[in-house]
Amino acid sequence: MWLHSNQVNEPANILNTSYANIPPMRLYPNELPTGEYMRVVRVLIKQLHAFAQSAKADDTHLAELKKITIPMIQGKFYIFLRNLIHRWPLDGSFRLVLELWLTYIQPWRYPPNNLIKYLNKRSPNPDAEDVTLAPQNSVDREYLPFIAENLLTYVVIFQQLLPRFGRVDLTSPKMSLMLYRITKVFDQPNLPAYLREVEQCVESDRVVYLWEGESPHHRHVTNHWTNNLPPLSPTSNWSTNTTFEASKKPSISPIINRTSFLSRDSYMEKKWSTIVKQTIFELEGPNFVYKPLFSDPPATEVILLREYKL
């Protein structure tokens, strides 16, 4: 209910609708959620992260529900964010959207409550938005499956956000703080390496398809796909919503630590690639071509933003 954001017109007359069939709360085309609405959704995401992670210490039947909690909402949340970012005005209130996104992509900040462990120990408040320069903790490898399943939420949302900062005054403390928050989150130890690792699995598998003359993502493409997500930046050198030209020479992002990449178990490599391709097909459609965040050269938006800051 909270993550529903279809951009379609609802029936005007629902007087004869029974209580059991009342449609869920919807955001209409020209309507933005209130600040309180956004805060409620953010609290929901925090609670779901904690609930899902508590499955590790749960041997009851409830553990099965905990394991599928995040997969159940991750697609709706991605669509919810993509539409909000497209429609939100260029002002300081965008911080509500930004923090909601950063909350979702950092599940390690919201472990399940352990009252016995923390009863006499002051623990950091996960709700506090850290703006200090203190060293950050490393992201544990146990979150790699979450990163792979939500790669679009990390990368495509990042690419959708970046052009906004080229259209605002970064001398404003509110605006510069938002950009700082993004860079601080993506600078967490191990997080860039995990994102790169998953991207390399996708890229490695994509090259095979290209040389076989296949679609980079799916061998069978339906002609009845309708994608209602907002368009991405028309100048983007990252993801596109146009059909990939197989005749183009594939560009591969530079591989850091090539030895570890080549020695990685092929099963895991295929697993991450399959997960990402299925997510792309379900959320963005068969014509969407994913291009890596760690591209060489960097995307145009990155260069433009750097020049704008200077």
Topology:
Blueprint lengths: L34 H19 L8 H26 L7 H10 L10 H4 L25 H6 L1 H11 L11 H14 L4 H21 L46 H5 L3 H18 L16 H10 L1
Helix pairs in contact: 1-2, 1-3, 2-6, 8-10
Structure in a nutshell:
This protein has 310 residues and is an all-alpha fold. The protein is built from eleven helices and no strands. Helices cover 46% and strands 0% of the residues.
What can you see in these coordinates?
The structure is a single chain. With 310 residues, the protein is mostly helical. It folds into two domains: 1-129, no CATH class; 146-310, no CATH class. 46% of the residues lie in helices and 0% in strands. The chain contains eleven helices and no strands. The chain has helices at residues 35-53, 62-87, 95-104, 115-118, 144-149, 151-161, 173-186, 191-211, 258-262, 266-283, 300-309. The model is unreliable at 6-25, 207-224 and 242-264 (pLDDT under 50).
Computed Rg: 21 Å
Strand content: under 5%
Q: What is the tally of beta strands?
A: 0
Low-confidence regions: 6-25, 207-224, 242-264
Give the tally of structural domains: 2
Query: What would you call the structural class?
Result: mainly alpha
- Tally of helical segments: 11
Shape: globular
Along the chain, the helix and strand elements come as HHHHHHHHHHH
Give the rounded overall mean pLDDT: 75
Quaternary form: single chain
The level of helicity is 40-55%
The profile of the biggest β sheet is: none
Terminal residue distance:
43 Å
Main location: membrane
Subcellular location: Membrane
Membrane topology: Single-pass membrane protein
Keywords: Membrane, Transmembrane, Transmembrane helix
